[in-house]
Specification:
5-stranded mixed beta sheet, alpha+beta, 4 helices, 30% helix
Length: 125
């Protein structure tokens, strides 16, 4: 099953409560936070609901290992597992040219970016 990386781009000022609740369900608590999930219809539905605040794409095993190595923190309850989310830094060199309010197709950051999510993660690790 394919894995999906979701990165929260925008903050929480003037955001509807139902969208904040969906982000909390996905463990996207703060700006520049990344989570990895299996590509399931329920997860895709939640992503479509918060599409104006996040970017997402398909991620490979190599990038997952890099995230765990650089930004993974052990779970305090179970030392053999890592926490399900990663705190990233803002991207080196900045975001795409049109900023954080336009979709990826329009030259911005938000929305689905497919395999190119790896490039953004490498800039943010």
């Amino acid at each position: 099953m394919k894995k999906i990386a979701i990165i929260r781009i925008r903050g929480q000022v003037r955001v509807k409560k139902e969208i904040l609740d969906t982000m909390d369900m996905l463990k996207l608590y703060n700006q520049h936070c990344c989570v990895i999930y299996d590509s399931k219809p329920a997860i895709i539905g939640m992503i479509k609901k918060i599409k104006d605040y996040v970017t997402w794409g398909e991620i490979d095993d190599e990038t997952i290992k890099l995230l765990i190595e650089k930004r993974g923190k052990p779970d305090p309850k179970d030392k053999t597992k890592n926490k399900a989310y990663f705190r990233l830094s803002p991207p080196k060199g900045g975001f795409e040219r049109k900023g954080i309010k336009k979709t990826f197709k329009e030259g911005g950051v938000l929305g689905f970016r497919g395999e190119k999510i790896k490039d953004l993660i490498l800039k943010m690790v």
